[in-house]
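hey so i finally got around to running the thing on that chain from the lab meeting. sorry it took forever, my laptop kept dying and i had to restart like 3 times. anyway pasting the input first so we r on the same page abt which one it is
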Amino acid sequence: MSSVEELVLALKAVHVWGGSPSLRELERRSQAVLRRSTISDMLRGGALPDYERYVAFLRACGIDGSSLDTWVFVWRRLKALEDSKVAPWVPGATAS
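ok and heres what got predicted. didnt touch it at all, straight out
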């Protein structure tokens, strides 16, 4: 993934893959780390989600283990791409 827009589409797919739980259910599964409004904002896009909330969303949708590691790498890569001076120092963060 090379943009926040692509990440948002992927997060929507994760939500579907996780059984399309309601925002209330995701809030419950995250043990209140996520609020329904935060989840809604995350799925609408516009900005890279906060790291902790991003991970909580993925876990609430059933992503864990090595799959979670991949998603964390994607977030870190996109975060690095936000700063052109940082990006060259992060493995895999060069723009494609």
